[in-house]
Amino acid sequence: MNNLCNKATLEAIPSLSNKESDLIQKVAQTYPMKVTEYYLGLIREPGDPIYKQCIPSEEELSDPTGQSDPLQEDQHSPVPRLHHRYPDRVLLVVTNNCAIYCRFCTRKRNISDKTTAITDTELARVVEYLNDHQEVHDVLISGGDPFSLPLNRLEKIISAIRALPHIDFIRIGTRIPCVDPEQVTKEFCAMLKKYHPLYINVQFNSPEEITPRSQQACAMLADAGIQLGNQSVLLRGVNDTPEVIKKLVRKLLGMRVKPYYLFIADMVKGTGHFRTTVETGLGIIRSIQGWMSGMATPQLVIDLENGGGKVPLSPCNVIEKQDGKYTFRNFENKLYEYIEHQPSQTRS
Ligand SMILES: *Cc1c(COP(=O)(O)O)cnc(C)c1O
């Protein structure tokens, strides 16, 4: 189950050459491949946006850039599975298993290990740590994919955290609605509904991923009262143009998912061929802001190498500032002046 890369899987891909198939199997020995039947079925031809996200590429083995743990998550882990990098929130990695292994994964270092899920002892230590850290108000449950855990395991984790009064809300990060939507069942939603306030961040990277089935999965979660956000990764050859991202965010809003973050791909070893420039990201944001509903703009973010953390990036619209006089640029690239009045101060 763990490594679904075999000949039968690859035969399901339309017009894949034998040579390509051999290469894929070679890369998968270093960086495992796993993909659901549903997601594989979305591939139309080798090299399309779905294919690129889930099928190993030779370039993974020849990446001269990157580190295995660029965010230095392993160094900000006070107890196993918990990452406390920011003042008021923590990241809890509950499993290293996923429904598919995205080729650009930030935690590529973890997926080749044997599948492990958080144990009761580990959960108890996490709860103890949170009890001692009353400044934490937001627990982000991630992985791996938390939704790949059995329902009762996931409920045990969520309920243990929910029992802590200083935790204001819980967040879950998952790709299941996108890559294995059938897993979002009524039972699943009924369980989650008991633990509000609950936010879920899904991950759709390309408009081709939005299908009647993934729409249905998001609708069920939204009907359970869960606020849905989307975290996309900017990926070369997949979604690195304004046209694609604009189409994506429109489709997301149409299924009650608010675009939350758009990430510059992390400096992870083996993913260099996906990385875009910062300017590409800023250009995409410029093409959305003002041109589309304010609801449509995700925050562009870069998660810095060497553990610098997330830095939000925005196109610079302050052109000049002098003696309380600003020059701003609007979405049409026209300049406007703004004079700031400071009522309590008199100037000479
Ligand atoms: C991304 C991340 C969070 C959550 O960040 P937000 O900006 O609040 O979405 C929390 N902890 C860690 C370690 C993270 O990497």
TrEMBL record:
Its cofactor is [4Fe-4S] cluster; pyridoxal 5'-phosphate. PANTHER family: L-LYSINE 2,3-AMINOMUTASE (PTHR30538:SF1), LYSINE 2,3-AMINOMUTASE-RELATED (PTHR30538). SUPFAM superfamilies: Radical SAM enzymes. Residues 59-81 are annotated as: Disordered. [4Fe-4S] cluster binds at C98, C102, C105. NCBIfam families: KamA family radical SAM protein. GO terms for molecular function: 4 iron, 4 sulfur cluster binding; isomerase activity; metal ion binding. Keywords: 4Fe-4S, Iron, Iron-sulfur, Isomerase, Metal-binding, Pyridoxal phosphate, S-adenosyl-L-methionine. It comes from Chlorobaculum parvum. Residues 84-296 form the Radical SAM core domain. It comes from the Bacteria. This is KamA family radical SAM protein. Belongs to the radical SAM superfamily. KamA family. Pfam families: LAM_C, Radical_SAM. The modification N6-(pyridoxal phosphate)lysine is found at K310.
